[in-house]
Amino acid sequence: MNKYITAYYTDENDLIKGVKQIREKGHNILDVFTPFPVHGLDVALGMRRSRLTRVAFGGGAVGAIVGFGFQAWVFTKAYPLNFGGKPYLSVPSFIPVTFELAVLLAAFSMVIAFFIHFKLGPGAKTVVYDERCTDDRFLVLIDAENAEADEVKKIEKALSDAGAEGITYKE
C-alpha cells in the first residue's frame, strides 16, 4: 500500500461517529488504531464475528481427546496397575489432566492462529503510520491507492466533516 490517508481523533466517541459517517459516504477504511479497546468500534467498522472461538474449541477438543486417550491407554494397556481395587479405567481421576490439556491446547491454537492470520512472527515488517497512534490518538487509515486528486479532496472533506483533527495524505 503506497497511498493512504490518515486522520486522527482524540476522543473515542468522536471516533465512532466519524467512522460511521465515513462509511456512510462509501469510503474504504482499511484499519483503525487505538491505544485501548473501544467498545462498538467493530460494529461501526462492519466487521464480522471472529472465528477464533472455533479455533479455540477445536484445539480444546483435540487436547481433551489426546489427554483422556493417553491416560486411558497408559492405565489400561501399557502399564495397568491395580491401586487398592480401583478400576483400570477410572474416569474421575482422568478429569484434571484432561481439562488442563484441553486448556493448554486451546490457548496454543489461538496464539498460533492469531500469528498466522495477522502475519506476525520472525521477519514481520511493521509499518508505523503515526508514532502517537497507540499513545493518545485514535488513528483511522483510509485506502487512497486508486484515488485521483479530486477524490482525495472529497475524502479529506468527509474526514474533516466527521470531526477528524489531523488529516494527512501520504504517498
Write structural notes for this entry:
This protein has 171 residues and is of the alpha+beta class. It has 2 domains: 4-35 and 133-170, Alpha-Beta Plaits (2-Layer Sandwich); 52-117, no CATH class. The protein has 5 helices and 4 strands; from the N terminus they run E-H-E-H-H-H-E-H-E. The longest helix has 27 residues, at 52-78.
Radius of gyration equals 25 Å
Low-confidence stretches: none
Class by SSE composition: alpha+beta
**What is the helix/strand order?**
EHEHHHEHE
Comma- or semicolon-separated keywords:
single chain; 171 residues; alpha+beta; Alpha-Beta Plaits; 2 domains; 5 helices
Secondary-structure blueprint of this entry?
Elements: E1 4-9, H1 12-24, E2 29-33, H2 41-45, H3 52-78, H4 91-117, E3 138-143, H5 149-161, E4 166-170
Antiparallel strand pairs: 1-3, 1-4, 2-3
Brief summary:
Helices cover 50% and strands 13% of the residues. It has five helices and four strands; from the N terminus they run βαβαααβαβ. It has a four-stranded antiparallel sheet, with helices on one face.
